[in-house]
Amino acid sequence: MARQGLFGSSLVKKFWMALTGLFLISFLVVHAAINAQIFWNDGGVTFNKWAHFMGTNVLIRTAEIVLFLGLIAHIVDGLMLWSQNRTARPVKYAAEKGSANRTWYSASMGILGTLLLLFLIMHLWHFWVPSRITGLDEIAGMPGHHDLYIEMVRVFESPVPVVLYVLGCISLYWHLLHGFASAFQSLGINHKRYNPIIKMTGAAFSAVISLLFISMPLAIHFKLLS
Q1: Is the pLDDT of residue 154 over 60?
Q2: Complete DSSP assignment for the chain
Q3: Which residue has the higher pLDDT, 124 or 10?
Q4: How far apart (Å, rounded) are the C-alpha atoms in residues 18 and 12?
Q5: Which residue has the higher pLDDT, 30 or 211?
Q6: Which domains are seen in the chain, by residue range?
C-alpha cells in the first residue's frame, strides 16, 4: 500500500510537493529581487518603494495568502512523509552504503525542512508582523509608506540574527539543491539528455539565491551600505 501523505497516495504527494516547490521557488526569485534593491545603496529609497508596492497591491497580497497556505501545506506534507518513511524503515538496510544511493542532504530533508520552518517563523516575526500587524515607522513626507529598510537595519545591528539568518540560508541552499531537481523528476521531466542541465541549473540557482540572501544581513551588519 502506498504511504499516505497530506493529500493521499505517494504519487499525488510527489506531484503536489513538486508543484508547491516550484511555486515557492518562483516566490524566492521575486523576494530576492525585491530585497536586492538595498544594494542600490540609496538609503533604502528604492527598496522601500518596491516594498510598498508589494504590500499594497491587491493581486500581490492575494498571492501572498495563497503562497502562505501552499508553504504550510508543503512543509506539513514533507514532514509527515519524512516521518512515515523513517517509521516504515526504522532499521537501515544492511546492504546500504552511506551515500551510495542518495546524498546526505536528500536523506535529511526532514531536518532541513524543520530548520527552514524555524527560520521562516523568525523571519516573519522580524519583518512580516511589523509590516502587516504592529506597524513600522513612516517615511518622512510620504504618509502610508513605511520604512522597512530601517527595520532591516535595526534587526541586523545585532550579530545574533545575522548568524541565524546565515545558518537559515545555508539550510535553504541544501534544501533547494535537492528540491529543484526532484521537482522536475516528480513532474515527469526526467531524461538522461536533460537531467545534467536541470541538475546544473538547480545547483547554480541554489547557490545564487542563498548567497544573495546571505549577503544582505552581512552587508547591513558590517555597514557596507549607506
Answers
A1: yes
A2: -PPPBTTBSHHHHHHHHHHHHHHHHHHHHHHHHHHGGGGG-STTHHHHHHHHHHHH-HHHHHHHHHHHHHHHHHHHHHHHHHHHHHHH--S--TT--GGGSS-HHHHTHHHHHHHHHHHHHHHIIIIIHIIIII--PEETTEEEEE-HHHHHHHHTTSHHHHHHHHHHHHHHHHHHHHHHHHHHHHTT---TTTHHHHHHHHHHHHHHHHHHHHHHHHHHHTT---
A3: 124
A4: 10
A5: 211
A6: 10-88+105-221 (1.20.1300.10)
What is the grid cell recorded at 172? Answer: 535553504
pLDDT grade, residue 203 (50/70/90)? very high
> Would you state the cell numbers that stand for residue 212, as one nine-digit string?
544573495
pTM attached to this predicted model: 0.81
Percent of the chain with pLDDT over 70: 80
Q: CA–CA separation, 96 vs 185, rounded Å?
A: 23
* 8 Å CB contact between 218 and 39: no
* Residue in 146, 182, 192, 138 with CA at minimum distance from that of residue 52: 146
d(CA 82, CA 75): 10
pLDDT for res 3: 46
Give the per-residue pLDDT at 64: 78
Per-residue pLDDT, 101: 56
Q: State CA 212 to chain mean position distance.
A: 12
Whose grid coordinates read 538595498?
A: 38
